Amino acid sequence: MSSRSVTSDRRSLRSRYNGASEDHTGGVPSSQPARGLRQRKKIATRRTIRRAAIRLFEEHGFADTTIEQIAEAADVSPRTFYRYFATKEGVLICDQAEPVVAMFERAPAELSPVAAYRYAVAAYFDGLTDDERHETIVAQHLLYSIPEARGLLYSEYALLIRLMTDALAVRLGPAATRTECRVIAGAIVGVLMAVSDGDPLPEESLARSLDVLEAAARW
């Protein structure tokens, strides 16, 4: 995969939920709800493309599935596919970072950073449907087994560290420096990286490993 493709998919990671907050905003001008509706349609289209791709990957294998086949199965044009994903590998990204961090931000204030992340991950997993769980498992397995996807996997973890750093800066306030927030975020995401390779949906192992991290912080 070229660096240009990785950069393009990373921009997609950063922007995929832009404007979503408008869905929950009251008393706004009429143009803003319209943008919220468009954003919801974009998210729905992205999910439709991704589900079609995962189904085809299971049926034909990743290498033997073309973007044209994915577009046809999703009832969109190849051009529309490229508006949502820069590469075929980009379909494998499960869009977990933003919702998990949003739940982390809403975790009870008395929880430690590690406990708050455990809370967020549990809430995220609990909210998945059976179909979403299956799609996530298939996609994560492919992400770790396809060399061309490694750059995107790194970008997703880098994005999660950045978002967690921002969330920790708010959560911990002036008592923690930006560097301290980033170190904590990196440690938490490092645990996720350690347990995800070979375990596509590591609910139990992630919870146990976060316990290890929290215990280590008290040594």
From TrEMBL:
Keyword Transcription regulation: yes
Region listing for Disordered, in residue ranges: 1-42
Domain of life the protein comes from: Bacteria
Residue ranges flagged as DNA-binding region: 66-85
Keywords, alphabetical: DNA-binding, Transcription, Transcription regulation
SUPFAM superfamilies, alphabetized: Homeodomain-like (SSF46689)
GO molecular function terms listed in the Swiss-Prot or TrEMBL record: DNA-binding transcription factor activity; transcription cis-regulatory region binding
Domain called HTH tetR-type: residue spans: 43-103
Pfam families: TetR_C_14, TetR_N
ATP-binding as UniProt keyword: no
Name of the protein in question: TetR/AcrR family transcriptional regulator
Species per Swiss-Prot/TrEMBL record: Mycolicibacterium rufum
